[in-house]
Amino acid sequence: xxxxxxxxxxxxxxxxxxxxxxxxxxxxxxxxxxxxxxxxxxxxxxxxxxxxxxxxxxxxxxxxxxxxxxxxxxxxxxxxxxxxxxxxxxxxxxxxxxxxxxxxxxxxxxxxxxxxxxxxxxxxxxxxxxxxxxxxxxxxxxxxxxxxxxxxxxxxxxxxxxxxxxxxxxx
Length: 171
Prior knowledge:
Oligomer: single chain
Distance between the termini: 32 Å
Strand order of the largest sheet: 1-2
Largest sheet: 2 strands, antiparallel
Number of strands: 2
Radius of gyration: 15 Å
Strand content: under 5%
Number of helices: 8
Structural class: mainly alpha
């Protein structure tokens, strides 16, 4: 019962956040594509499409849903202050586009695009293809590498909710 309530609250938050961002002037959003405070799901999807053009639309939507989950729909401190769209910690063993780490060990990027590029490096480091067709398979794959500590069921359900809301916005 608590899980259903949590998911309902998450959907309401996503809708509220989208409506709030939708009221901002389109000119202002276009001028500041990289400004984390003005990021929307559609703008982030477009950014992912620019950075990862080789991926299918489905894979880019799943990656956007991943960012929506990790950032609380682009509202977290780590996203706003550090340009960190995926909650990445500063890596010890792999190449990174991060320019620093914050006091809690999260990667700090000079731009949001750099954060997307770093996710690609993370997948390359693990010799994994980023092409996924379902949020659940994506959540399962990144769980194999201990990317997150939530339960798989919670993480996959949240990603699916974000994926479905993004799908409605894009199509």
